[in-house]
Specification:
The structure is a single chain. This protein is about 35% helix and about 20% strand. By secondary structure, it is an alpha+beta fold. It has a domain at about 35-79. A three-stranded antiparallel β-sheet has the order 1-3-2, with helices on one face. The termini are far apart. It comes from Brassica napus (Rape).
Amino acid sequence: MDITTRISLTLSLLTVLAISMSCNNVSAVSVIEPAKLPTRCFHQCGGIYDDHACFTDCIPKGYDHGMCRNGRCCCFNDN
């Protein structure tokens, strides 16, 4: 066995040893989305209470959107 083969074999074994001794702790984290709230209609729309005011009231209640539908402020989430 010549010197080049010995060096190649030694480096290969050292590489395998280094890889096997390295810490490969990989853990998967599941993402749990919060439950979506059902569409609910709260206030009467009209006058100064428009789509923007309805939207502004729905956001703090946990909804994505809010708009006036059939004269009432309805809050809903994206599907």
